[in-house]
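Format is sequence with structure; example below:
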Amino acid sequence: MSTEEEWYSVLDVHPEASAEDVKAAYQNLLLALHPDKNLGRESAELHLVLQAWKVLGDPEERRRYDARRQQRQDQANVWKTVSLGEMSAAAEEEGHLHLDCRCGGAYLVQAEEVRRLSRLVIECDTCSLSLVVNNDDRVN
C-alpha cells in the first residue's frame, strides 16, 4: 500500500486473524528476529514487526487501521465517479438505471435507491470495478 505498510503481511497473518493469532505470529517473529538470536544485530525487519504489533496488537488501533485499509481498497477499485444524470434507464429492467462498464459489463441499480441517497457505490456485474454515483438532487 502506498502510504502505509501492509501490517498483516509484515506479521504474515490474514486480515481476519484473531487477536490471539496475531499475537502468536508477532511473538514468533520477535523471537526469530531478536538481536540476542542474531549476534546482537537489529534488523529493519524487526522494526517493521514492532511497528506492526503496535498497530495490530491494540484493538482500537487495529480497528482504525482496518477502516483505513478498507477505504484504500474501495478507492482502488473505483473506475469512475458520475452524477445521477449520467446514468440511463435500463431497457431490460423497468425502474432501474444503468451505465456500461469499460469491461463490457454493466452497473445496474434501482432508480429509487439511488434517488434516496446522496452517494452510492455500485459494483459491476462482471468485473471488480465500482462506480460512484453522486446525487446532488437527492429526495429526502
Notes: The chain has two domains: 7-75, 78-134. The mean pLDDT is 85. The beta strands are 78-83, 88-89, 96-100, 106-110, 119-123, 130-134.
